[in-house]
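Sequence only, no structure available. Ideas?
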Amino acid sequence: MLDEGEMSRFKWTTVAVCVTLIMLDGFDVLVVAFTAAPISAEWKLSGAVLGFLFSAGLFGMAAGSLFLAPWADRFGRQAITLLSLALISGGMLASGFAQNDVQLGALRAITGLGIGGMLASVGVITAEYSSRKWRSTSIALQATGYPIGATIGGTIAAVLLTVYGWRSVLSLAASPRPR
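Reply:
I predicted one. Tokens follow.
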């Protein structure tokens, strides 16, 4: 029925929610790049330590894709998507309170774990809820959420950095108000 039917408001809303979740992922992945300079200045970090912080999130993404996403077949995609969203939100919010590079790296890995689980699950949800006729378009729309989220997030991060500092940028995806 989902495959053959028209794209109802419910189906388009589902695709829009998936696009929005991927937009958040796009922002989350690049948040350390947006905040690297002020974090480095405050904690006096070397380039190697910054590399560790960049890699921690990517390591978590790989782990989430390999180990968390496959659970969607067992426990349901919506459940894993919600778990992934909780990991992302919790990791991002806690990252704003990190006191050193090791804490921030661990929290970035947790956030990445959620992003990896979300990327795989949301892609499948988008495909499942799209009719055959609109499936390619829906998947393409969902994929554009990543760079759109990174772009919008970078613009917002530039403003937040000057007004509230780097911790507010890390908390942005988890909270409606900067901290």
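Residues 69 and 98 are 27 Å apart (CA to CA).
Hope that gets you unstuck.
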